[in-house]
Automatic annotation (TrEMBL):
Gene3D superfamilies in UniProt: Spore Coat Polysaccharide Biosynthesis Protein SpsA, Chain A (3.90.550.10)
One Gene Ontology MF term: transferase activity
Keyword Metal-binding applies: no
Organism: Natronococcus occultus SP4
Bilayer-crossing regions: 226-255, 261-282
Pfam families reported in the protein's UniProt record: Glycos_transf_2
Protein name: Glycosyl transferase
Keyword entries, A-Z: Membrane, Transferase, Transmembrane, Transmembrane helix
Ranges of residues in domain Glycosyltransferase 2-like: 22-101
Amino acid sequence: MDAPTPIAVILPTTGWNDVCEQIADQLQPDDELLVVCDEFHESVADRAEARDGVRSIVAGEPEDCSGKANAIAAGMEAADAERIVWTDDDFSHPSGWLEKLRIDYDRRGPTSELPVFVGRDPLAAVLEPTHAISGTLAVSLANIPWGGSLVFERDDLDDEQRFLDELRQTVSDDGLLSEHVEFTTIKRPRHVEIGGSTRETLENQARFVKIVRYHDPTGTAAQGMLAAVLTVACLLFPLPMLALTTLSMAAIYAAFGIHRWTFLAAYPVALAAIPLLVYGLARRTFVWGGRRYRWDGKFDVTIEPL
């Protein structure tokens, strides 16, 4: 039997945590886990040194890009393997997670799993139907890569150095990757908690809207048209639309194994679709990961004081 293809797992994080342990336990002998932090953490370096195949990488402070994009770029430059996995530390990585991605690539080439966003505060919970549509259903149907769990190889990039240079000038790592590599999205959802406070949820809303604006402007226009049609229909035919939106959302939840009561919020969320889109487009800055970003163009990013 042939030896498994070596994989480099790039994990941006702020410190050693349970996800680091989960992934380290899944490494094959030639795999590596790169735990990427903005600055040196002795505890991370010590824990990484104690595990076979694990390295601590210091990305440094981002200048013209997001901290996540900067960390991914640093991880890719430090990685030895040709096959690359990107992942995040905000969801559980059960046994077999890495091996499934290895098999996915062997069968399908560049592959991504799916996010299911679960709200940690009341507003984020109520907005779960919007994420089920745009963050799960649309990602699945359009084969859009999700940076939380994906696999590809360096040769899949048309120009790796150009990609890394662009990565250090933008906010969305997976949004940029979608323009360089064609992915197949696997219907294998991973539940990711988001929010935590009303302010954080609103910051996420602004960031999500801007990602679509700069990486899929046609999608933003389509989203606006659909939201307008839904709003008018909900206002003109409230009872039928209440039933239709609720049942449709329940079907989407069932299709992706989402067992949450929040499908019941589908009707009010449909009414709020236009205000939410306008809010995201109108915001000049947003906070993400402890930094405030002004994102005025795909490659026009400024980090401002909090």
